[in-house]
Design goal:
Layout lengths: L3 H8 L4 H13 L1 H7 L1 E8 L10 E7 L16 E2 L5 H7 L5 E5 L8 E10 L2 E10 L8 H18 L22 E5 L4 E4 L1 H9 L19 H9 L3 E7 L3 E12 L2 E11 L1 H41 L3 H26 L4 E3 H15 L6 E6 L4 E3 H21 L13 E10 L2 E8 L16 H13 L3 E6 L8 E8 L5
Parallel strand pairs: 13-15
Antiparallel strand pairs: 1-2, 1-6, 2-3, 4-5, 5-6, 7-8, 7-11, 9-10, 10-11, 12-14, 15-16, 16-18, 17-18
Helix pairs in contact: 1-2, 3-5, 8-9, 9-10, 9-11, 10-11, 11-12
Length: 494
């Protein structure tokens, strides 16, 4: 289904500011539907040449949460003939609310209707249509209070003061009227509170009668109420009682000719939500601690292998221990990143940067070496990130250790360059490593690797990552050196 902005762009001549105003209205008008016990439609004139014959496009629709709907069909995006909605046409050409009746397809008798002009920059840009269903008998005191509030908010719609410019207040996620409301007059005194609002106050430890008293007199300091009364600014504030109770106050200033006449407080008990948030935070903290300890344990193993290598008199044994130590450090890098941002995915760019620094610091060469990293792979699942990090570390190490010798490659005055290019080709991660060294031996074959490192790389790519790897020498005419491409599928089918 198209959004309000998309419908307005295609079907109307409204500008960006007007569409934004209507979008904010549609994000908060559930409050109007609940207070009026009515279905509501948002209609704007279609984009045709003759303005006085324009039909209407339904840009939005909302149903009440406390009454049965009158509209079983979704009318958003439909065209409504102006002949069937003469009251909407009248409201569109005026700056005041038009009341009357309209005959709906599914109703036997006409339905009371309000047509409220939506004003913006001193111009009517749309009409808010209220379709009122039958009340269950005479209106109760609470129902009458709701209807009075609705009338005051309708006046704000025609006065361009509702919806508010503040996107986080009276917008998406606004509590429904049934969650609890408190009406405060212009002096800051409570006029009435619904039973659900009273229950929320009880949870905060306030049991005294509220009517005719200010929240401060009741022992509750809600700063957003004072701010709204003084400046007419909507706001949200969360009031806690210990760690178990949290009540969210949505403060909606009520204006008349841009003067504050009262405040509507929408209350929502968010205690369970805050408890869940604490559980999630505690779980994340535990996962971070696990990764931190794994990283520390791997670093301890790495240190032991490095110490053992120093005590070894055999050159081959020392080299094997140092290579094992480096591979363990590659795994530790992944857990170090996960200890900062736990989850099933990891930002691979952070790992790559750490691997490049590690390889540059740990490898000795007769030539100065520079590793350049281009591109990134975004976030990767940890079951891909860990083996891929080992593969890249091995390939970078292999390049800086074997590509630049005193018998070939760049001269002693030149810098050995190793370039790592990372990219995504659809659902495939691609890592390409190119150096300007001596290239591969003429008899080189990846199927018969000459080192343990290349054997590990080949097996990890093919067996664990289900990817492909190719290694080739670059012709001298193209700069020489070695080129490696690793392709790893990221989809579940891998």
């Amino acid at each position: 289904m198209a959004t309000l902005a998309e419908l307005a762009a295609v079907r109307t001549s409204l500008n960006a500011g007007e569409v934004d105003h209507l979008s904010r209205l549609a994000a908060s008008w559930s409050l109007l539907a609940d207070l009026s016990f009515s279905d509501m439609l948002l209609m704007a004139q279609g984009d045709t040449e003759q303005a006085w014959t324009k039909d209407f496009v339904v840009l939005g629709q909302v149903r009440p949460n406390n009454r049965a709907t009158l509209l079983s069909d979704d009318l958003v995006g439909t065209t409504q003939r102006s002949q069937h909605w003469p009251l909407v046409t009248e409201a569109m050409n005026s700056d005041h609310i038009v009341e009357g009746e309209v005959l709906l397809d599914d109703e036997d008798a006409p339905v009371p209707v309000w047509c409220i002009p939506v004003r913006y920059n001193q111009r009517t840009i749309a009409v808010l249509v209220r379709l009122q269903g039958p009340l269950r008998g005479p209106a109760s005191a609470y129902e009458q209070a709701y209807l009075d509030l609705f009338t005051r908010l309708c006046g704000m719609v025609t006065d361009s003061t509702f919806p508010y410019r503040e996107a986080d207040v009276a917008g998406p996620g606004i509590p429904r009227v049934g969650d609890g409301i408190i009406l405060i007059d212009g002096r800051g005194l409570v006029e009435f509170a619904t039973p659900n609002a009273t229950n929320a106050m009880h949870r905060l430890g306030l049991y005294a009668a509220t009517e005719g008293r200010s929240l401060r007199d009741l022992g509750l300091r809600v700063r957003v109420v004072e701010r709204a009364l003084e400046y007419g600014i909507p706001a949200i504030e969360e009031v806690d009682r210990g760690s178990e109770v949290a009540i969210m106050f949505h403060c909606v200033p009520l204006l008349d000719q841009r003067h504050v006449t009262g405040v509507l407080l929408l209350l929502r008990d968010v205690s369970d939500l805050r408890r869940l948030n604490r559980m999630v935070l505690n779980k994340e903290a535990a996962i971070k601690e696990v990764h931190h300890r794994v990283k520390n344990n791997l670093q301890t193993i790495s240190s032991l292998l490095r110490l053992q290598a120093r005590r070894s008199d055999d050159t081959h044994s020392r080299q094997a221990l140092l290579e094992a130590e480096r591979r363990i450090r590659s795994i530790a890098v992944v857990h170090e990143v996960l200890s900062r941002e736990p989850g099933e995915e990891v930002v691979f760019d952070e790992i790559v940067q750490s691997l490049a620094v590690m390889v540059e610091d740990s490898v000795l060469s007769l030539h100065p070496i520079e590793i350049l990293v281009n591109g990134d792979l975004g976030t990767l699942p940890t079951d891909i990130a860990t083996p891929l990090a080992i593969v890249i570390a091995e390939l970078l190490t292999n390049a800086v250790e074997h590509a630049f010798t005193e018998f070939g490659g760049p001269s002693n005055e030149d810098v050995g360059i190793v370039v790592l290019n990372l990219s995504l080709e659809g659902d495939v991660a691609v890592a390409e490593i190119r150096d300007n060294g001596v290239g591969l031996d003429a008899n080189f074959s990846l199927e018969i690797p000459t080192s343990l490192g290349l054997s590990i790389v080949r097996d990890l790519v093919r067996a664990q990552l289900h990817g492909t790897i190719e290694m080739n020498s670059v012709p001298s005419a193209q700069g020489g050196g070695t080129f490696v491409r690793v392709r790893v599928p990221l989809t579940e089918e891998r």
